[in-house]
Design a protein that fits this description.
The chain has 449 residues and is an alpha+beta fold. 26% of the residues lie in helices and 23% in strands. The structure holds flavin-adenine dinucleotide.
Length: 449
């Protein structure tokens, strides 16, 4: 048995004092910070990576889904997502592709720089390569977070906090109740691969399906996307590390390594069985494992599958979405898609089309979008903390639709606005007036329905 060690008690320097600290700098976190800064709050943002953007940059996931309802007619998402798309267009870093499964393909290296510019341009104080470690409670109130970086262990004080860390590390440390599963969707290590389109008649997906076992691969499936401005390059998401809780450090380590092994094995199949005169090359491995699901926290309201699939309206809605329910099977290959029009599709293998069917009978009028209420981000135990991003309160079905970036970006914006209003009013985010949050979001360009 490993012995424990006693960490000596010490006083930690406070390196920064501000109105709002955002833990986690994905688009969710940056959008929270930007909205709060635009309302006059002083904001700091912390991320353990060397860049902002989270899954979209470090994870290399380069697709944003539709900003319209399922009919493609009514705009339902605006705000900072739309602003960022317009920024990326200036550098040809986004393609409007409007397919069923994607609306925008991005060059996420450009997105990194745009997020830097937004953070600095709004006077937000950035802490990159900085790990959030622990909360500080004084007289029972959250007053600071402890961080670690090249300068050692330091504290950052604030009045309000947003946990946008994906896994909800701050919320976990504060003892907020959460669930893991049942059946966590598996993580995927993404890769950028050059030359897949130039393999002629050779169907590499079928080859991987048939010969993968020779290289230690289970039967599986994956998807890919073009990258604007990089013909011949593909973003590929072909790996799955099943039965992984990526919020556990040891399992995360194992999954990062296993994901990279699977990328190599896929490429080795192509090298072994593909045309000898056509070469593929590994251009990039995502800097961070792509985590689909980990802790989901109990907040004031749990969004349900029926809320999503039947398009239930909420009077405190702060986000709208039209992306389908997208469940990567937890313990084996395959994905189930459920659509708001009652249809369903299940894909089990590479290179094969899905089995199509219905999950319910047709309705006289199908919903065309769903909503996420502010209540899914707020709780009553820690008055000055809001959650944003994929740790929001949703059941597994609702989660599988809510978890995409165009939806989560809006939760960030809502958390930032709610905190900024609390700071302005001298109150706490837990006591937010949902209608004031909605009105302020709308003033800032968000679509409130
Ligand atoms: C392989 C894959 C493909 C996907 N495909 C799509 C897609 O095509 N389109 C789509 O919209 N969505 C897709 N998703 C889902 C989507 O990418 C994620 O659900 C979403 O990005 C989660 O956003 P988030 O802000 O909650 O978390 P994240 O993007 O994970 O951001 C969390 C941030 O917090 C930081 N952080 C975490 N812990 C700490 C800490 N202790 N200290 C400091 N910083 C910390 C991280 O570095 C990160 O920047 C995909 C997901 C995966 C895994």
């Amino acid at each position: 048995m490993l012995l424990s060690v006693k960490e000596p008690e010490r006083t930690v320097d406070c390196v920064h004092e501000t109105d709002l600290v955002v833990v986690g700098g994905s688009c969710t976190g940056v959008f929270a910070a930007v909205r709060a800064a635009r309302l006059g709050a002083r904001v700091a943002i912390i991320d353990k990576q060397n860049c902002f953007g989270g899954m979209a940059t470090a994870g290399a996931v380069n697709i944003w889904h539709s900003l319209h309802d399922t009919e493609g007619q009514r705009p339902i998402i605006g705000g900072l997502t739309l602003e960022m798309v317009e920024r990326l267009k200036k550098r040809d870093a986004v393609q409007d592709c409007s397919t069923v499964s994607a609306a925008f393909r991005m060059n996420t290296e450009e997105l990194k720089i745009d997020l830097d510019e937004w953070v600095l341009g709004h006077g937000i104080v950035p802490f990159l390569n900085t790990y959030y470690c622990a909360p500080v409670l004084e007289d029972g109130r959250l007053t600071a977070v402890i961080v670690e970086n090249k300068n050692g262990r330091k504290a950052i004080r604030a009045r309000q906090f947003v946990d946008a860390s994906g896994d909800g590390d701050l919320a976990r440390d504060l003892g907020l109740p959460f669930e893991l599963g049942p059946g966590l969707q598996p993580p995927t290590l993404c890769a950028k691969i050059f030359g897949l389109d130039a393999l002629g008649d050779f169907d590499w997906q079928v080859a991987v399906q048939e010969h993968g076992h020779e290289f230690g691969l289970e039967k599986d499936w994956g998807w890919g996307s073009a990258i604007p401005g990089l013909p011949g390059m593909k973003l590929r998401a072909d790996t799955h590390v099943f039965n992984t809780d990526a919020s556990d450090a040891e399992q995360l380590t194992r999954a990062e390594i296993e994901g990279r092994r699977q990328v190599r094995a896929i490429m080795d199949v192509i090298r072994a069985y593909g045309p000898s005169d056509k070469r593929i090359a590994l251009a990039d491995l995502a800097a961070a494992l792509g985590v689909r699901e980990s802790r989901r926290f109990r907040m004031r309201y749990r969004l349900t599958g029926d809320d999503v699939l039947f398009g239930r309206p909420f009077d405190d809605a702060i986000a709208n979405g039209s992306y389908r329910v997208d469940i990567h099977h937890a313990d084996g290959p395959g994905v189930t898609f459920r659509y708001l029009d009652g249809t369903e599709s299940v894909i089990r293998e590479r290179g094969r089309s899905g089995e199509k069917g219905r999950w319910r009978d047709p309705l006289p009028e199908d919903p065309t979008f769903y909503q996420i209420p502010l209540r899914c981000l707020l709780q009553d135990r820690v008055a000055n903390l809001a959650l944003a991003g994929r740790m929001l309160d949703a059941d597994p079905t609702a989660y599988s639709a809510a978890r995409v970036m165009v939806n989560l970006n809006q939760t960030g914006e809502a958390a930032g606005v709610a905190c900024a209003l609390a700071i302005r009013n001298g109150g706490d985010v837990a006591a937010s007036d949902a209608q004031a949050v909605r009105a302020t979001l709308a003033e800032g360009g968000s679509i409130m329905l």
